[in-house]
């Protein structure tokens, strides 16, 4: 039976996996989560998530360093990848795939998992990798551009490293970035210069424990509230421009 495809729908997905600590070890998928999104309104149409038990359950840690993290006990009674492969295939195949760093990680892991069970892997109608997209369009304002850094930048909370939660956080980060970029493109002279000349704050890298500068969207001694008010003041000056107002109204409806 031929599976119906939806080439204009976007499916945001995320995988949680084991982390190899020895040469030759593989990644094992422990959780899959996805939401299907209407590209015109960014509305969530459907969602699915499942824990996955690897063939060798000993590769899963007995304890997790994260609150609510995935442990051996949590996946002990979970279905195998083969058990949920058909469902995952139906969600992914023929849709636009979206996610953070999916080109180099999640897409590769999906193909490996389907190859391991001897089945054809799903194929996307397109790929949106928010890591590459935001690094190119949004710059390094949020530091290393990891999802946790972007979420902290916009005050969206702490990344949970659970598939469905991370997928929804990814979508919210994109909405916030899109809003900022839209405002900058609307009033580039006022906004781009102000944010590009913003001060640096010092953050500590966990990998090398060195201090590194990170750009913030407000000036030293200022506040995010002050910046928000500045944006509102700039927009109020544009009230007489009907074409601009129509564009802002349309953008707001898409980004809600």
From TrEMBL:
Residues 9-183 form the Exonuclease domain. Pfam families: RNase_T. Residues 202-223 are annotated as: Disordered. InterPro entries: Ribonucl_H, RNaseH-like_sf, RNaseH_sf. It comes from the Eukaryota. PANTHER family: DNA POLYMERASE III SUBUNIT EPSILON, EXONUCLEASE DOMAIN-CONTAINING PROTEIN. This is Exonuclease domain-containing protein. It comes from Brassica napus (Rape).
């Amino acid at each position: 039976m031929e599976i119906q495809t939806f080439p204009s729908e976007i499916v945001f997905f995320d995988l949680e996996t084991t982390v190899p600590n020895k040469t030759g070890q593989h990644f094992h998928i422990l959780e899959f989560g996805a939401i299907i999104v209407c590209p015109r309104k960014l509305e969530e149409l459907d969602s699915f998530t499942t824990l996955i038990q690897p063939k060798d359950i000993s590769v899963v840690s007995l304890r997790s360093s994260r609150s609510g993290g995935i442990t051996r006990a949590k996946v002990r009674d979970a279905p195998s990848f083969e058990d949920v492969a058909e469902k995952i295939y139906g969600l992914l195949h023929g849709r636009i795939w979206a996610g953070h760093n999916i080109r180099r990680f999640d897409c590769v892991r999906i193909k490996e998992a389907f190859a391991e069970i001897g089945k054809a892997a799903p194929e996307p109608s397109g790929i949106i990798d928010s890591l590459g997209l935001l690094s190119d369009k949004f710059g390094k304002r949020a530091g290393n551009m990891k999802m946790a850094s972007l979420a902290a930048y916009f005050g969206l909370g702490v990344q949970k490293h659970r598939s469905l939660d991370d997928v929804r956080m990814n979508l919210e980060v994109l909405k916030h970035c899109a809003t900022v970029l839209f405002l900058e493109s609307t009033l580039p002279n006022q906004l781009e210069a102000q944010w590009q000349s913003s001060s640096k704050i010092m953050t500590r890298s966990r990998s090398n424990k060195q201090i590194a500068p990170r750009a913030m969207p407000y000036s030293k001694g200022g506040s995010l509230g002050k910046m928000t008010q500045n944006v509102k003041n700039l927009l109020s000056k544009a009230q007489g421009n009907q074409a601009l107002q129509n564009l802002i109204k349309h953008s707001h409806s898409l980004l809600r």
